[in-house]
Amino acid sequence: MNLQAAGDVAPGIGRAERRRAAPWMRATVAVEHVSLTTVEHAIGVTRGDDEGAGDVPSPVRRRLDCRRRAERMDAAIAVKGPAAGSVLTKHDGTSDVESAPVGCGRGIQIQSAEGMNPAVAIERHAAGRARCGVGRRGHLELNQAGKEEGGHQRRVCLPGMRHGPVADCIGWGVSKPPSLHSQRMSSVAVIGAGYVGLTTAVCLADLGHRVTGVDIDKTKVIRLRAGEPTIYEPGLEALMAAMLKSGRLAFTSDYDDAIPDADFVFIAVGTPPGRRGEADTVFVKQAAKRIAGAMKKTMTIVNKSTVPIGTGNIVARIVGESLRDEIPFHVVSNPEFLREGSAIYDFMHPDRLVFGSHDEPAARAVAGLYSKLDTKILITDLHTAEMIKYASNAFLATRISFINEMARICERVDADVKVVSEGMGMDRRIGPLFLEAGIGYGGSCFPKDVKALARMAETMGYHPELLDAVMEINLDQRTLVVEKLREVLGGLRDQVVGVLGLAYKPNTDDIREAPAIDVIENLLQKGAVVRAYDPKAMPVLKAQMNTIQYCNDPYALATGADALLVVTEWDEFRQLDLDRL
Ligand SMILES: NC(=O)c1ccc[n+]([C@@H]2O[C@H](COP(=O)([O-])OP(=O)(O)OC[C@H]3O[C@@H](n4cnc5c(N)ncnc54)[C@H](O)[C@@H]3O)[C@@H](O)[C@H]2O)c1
Question: What is the pLDDT of residues 321-344, one digit of tens each?
Answer without folding.
Answer: 999 889 999 999 999 999 998 999
